[in-house]
Amino acid sequence: MKARNKSLQETTRLQDASSIAPEIRRGQSIELLKELHILTREGKLNQDSRRKLKQVYHLFQFIEKLLQELPASEAGITLADHGAGKSYLGFIIYDLFFKGLNKGHIYGIETRAELVEKSRALAAQLGFAHMSFLNLSVAESAHAAELPERIDMVTALHACDTATDDAIQFGLQKKARCMVLVPCCQAEVARHLNASKALTLNRTPLAELWRHPLHTREMGSQITNVLRCLYLEAMGYQVTVTELVGWEHSMKNELILARYTGQPKRGSAQRLQAILQEFGILPLLDTRFAHVKDDLALVPHAPIEPPA
Known about the structure:
It contains 13 helices and seven strands. Helix 3 packs across helix 4 (about 90-100), helix 8 (about 190-195) crosses helix 10 (about 215-235) and helix 10 packs antiparallel against helix 11 (about 265-280). The protein is α/β, with parallel strands linked by helices and about 300 residues long. The chain has helices at about 1-20, 30-35, 45-70, 90-100, 115-125, 140, 165-175, 190-195, 195-205, 215-235, 265-280, 285, 290-295, and strands spanning about 80, 105-110, 130-135, 155-160, 180-185, 235-245, 255-260. It has a single domain (about 20-295), classed as 3-Layer(aba) Sandwich (Rossmann fold), CATH 3.40.50.
């Protein structure tokens, strides 16, 4: 009887999903959509939540394509979501992709203990058994016993400043097959640019591009993401950069998609070094980009191989 009632409830939920709005996909958890405030408590989809749902689907279409490209395995796909916050992204991915497979695992990694506890409670409430939530920093997670040695996909949505770099290092250590990154608040390179600004202004007129504090911040953000893309290419990833959503919704809009090809690009490593040298931020080669340092002879103005 209990099983029958549960089946009837599930059927009702599916019917409710299709009757609320055509945008909602068949089989989506109405309860989850309410918890994420995409649907109101009455199960309504208003204009604001319709826009939010459109953005969710836009991001998911990139992630879904990468997930479908991963080789099949008996254990299923493993995914680590860094800087998970309320695990909004992880829950959506699980509901739209993992739930139907009944295998694989999503790990939500977040430093705020209260959000981790809430995510655990929601996963239990929804019956999302293949989800775990860890109260760790991105850097700590690389050595955590709770995570497997290999992770297939790494996501980091609006991981602030160097947390995105930590997510990349995590992905490299875990031999991730793909990474989905939306950087946020890139400040580290801007600090380095600011510290060497006087010397650089004497050396090159290009330093005018970041002489004013506002420009320093903007240039630092742009350079940071360019360096991240070159680094990923140097480590054997094919990189695509696109928009997350329209600029009218968010200025933190850059989406970096990386697929592992197993073909490191020495030319990208050389270009990374050349940019660090040109902007006077070569010390970052010892910290953020140490993996490529051993493959490079640190000779100023070394010839650069053309991109493949």
